[in-house]
């Protein structure tokens, strides 16, 4: 590459840059930046180096495994460019200390992240701090770089991203038909037993399954619990799913005894499913497993040779690519349960294990459970390698793609530093050459979407839900955090009462979280003022009450305000609308009936005070 003009080189050297992420793209990017002449850099990454990173994250070597990515990346870059001024943070960019004032120090932010939550967050902070952002990503052979500048280009959230693929709860809990259904169930089971338990990730038979309840002779929803299930851990077998008992509590009460757990999961629950006869009218019914008599050969195979090699994890194939026999799965299950139980017992009170595709025991647990379930339902079994890649949603990372993306980031960064934002482009690496023979395709960045609830002037979102059933906690978790990507929302009724229903201060609104919205006077047409001080982001949420939700869907977000809004009357409710941009399916838990309790007003202790409190703690 020809040397940069002197004037640009000077600008480059004087530019303060933030690199977010020191993984596959981030390592290449840091190396490129210093070689280009950038000399004032801060880098942040929350992770430590894993052995699996070494094949493509070339700033890291074997001796660095277990150390901070940000620290080692900095050290490695300084070893070949000792004059650079690089500061590192071993932390998440979503931590409160990296707020708008932190972002304002930089002339440029470069993302090298791998997840949507962090990308959304950085997008919002760059918009708030008015710092240009270069966003990037890679997936196998595909790569992409785009420039985001407030008021000039579209932001990361101007175009809704497709929802992550999810599977209907009934399929996962009652009628799996593909290996992925069993893998999802096994990951949910890991969380129920050892991790952050989520009510939407229940693993026990679902009596509310509409198919099971079809009136057809006997109503399956009304069958008596089979005797073997009488002391079932997750006694959610009423059609309302109202009486849930914690799977975790049951497991603890049984000291995580692997055989007891096995019997419950792969025998008693399966016999219970079998009693829901409607489910098996057109499907092959599952088989309940017996802990003491499992085959040591693969389903359908008459020889046990492959089985014995699999059990010892030896044989000619690569160890992780051997498919375990049902008996090996049981042994692996026993071992993994015992190990995870020990790991959990060493945690401080209230702390749990976190599923990680790079944690060997966690992957062994999921592989064993997924395969035992697959065996129960006559679904093909998968190797540890396959389960790991399916459970981790892994598209193999390719070092050369990351290298190209990192190069493309620097090219766009140089245009920004040179004051030529109009010359920036969105650049894509495609899999096959286009008709003009190009693999790298660029396009002029799109303009901001005037309807974007993140970067447009009017941040309004409509949400349809059943105010009599939807709880405050569900509003916070499913809508504000999981769907609208807020991190620490404060929510106030915009009816002049100043009632705060959700506070980002821990414990402040805990007493309200199980109340339904209707109980807090949030009804059809209510407007909620939502504020995330960490993202400097405000949003009006307008509630549309809707009683009839089906198929496990319990709310619908509508962001296309213009089509919904009657021309004159702001307060009038929008009509039914098909322009739905996001649907999240889950079950609705029956609400508790408790009375309305008014909270403090914004004047007395509003989000502004909170912001000040946080900066006090930081000492700035
Ligand atoms: N909130 C965050 N704050 C700071 N760094 C983050 C955050 N979220 C993700 N990262 C970092 O972004 C980097 C993304 O890099 P990459 O896509 O190569 O992921 P990886 O974890 O290194 O690899 P793989 O996921 O394939 O094992 C990771 O190092 C990750 O730790
Ligand atoms: Zn936008």
TrEMBL record:
One Pfam family named in its UniProt record: ThiF
The answer to keyword Nucleus applying to this record is yes
Which segments constitute the Ubiquitin-activating enzyme SCCH domain? Answer: 336-388
Amino acid composition bias (Polar residues), ranges on this chain: 232-244
Residue ranges for the region (Disordered) are 201-245, 291-314, 591-620
**All copies of domain Ubiquitin/SUMO-activating enzyme ubiquitin-like, residue ranges:** 463-549
Biased composition range(s): Low complexity: 300-314
Subcellular location per UniProt equals: Nucleus
Task: Quote the record's binding site residues for Zn(2+).
Answer: 155, 158, 452, 455
Specify whether Repressor is a keyword of the entry.
no
Q: Give the record's subunit note.
A: Heterodimer.
Give the protein's recorded name: SUMO-activating enzyme subunit
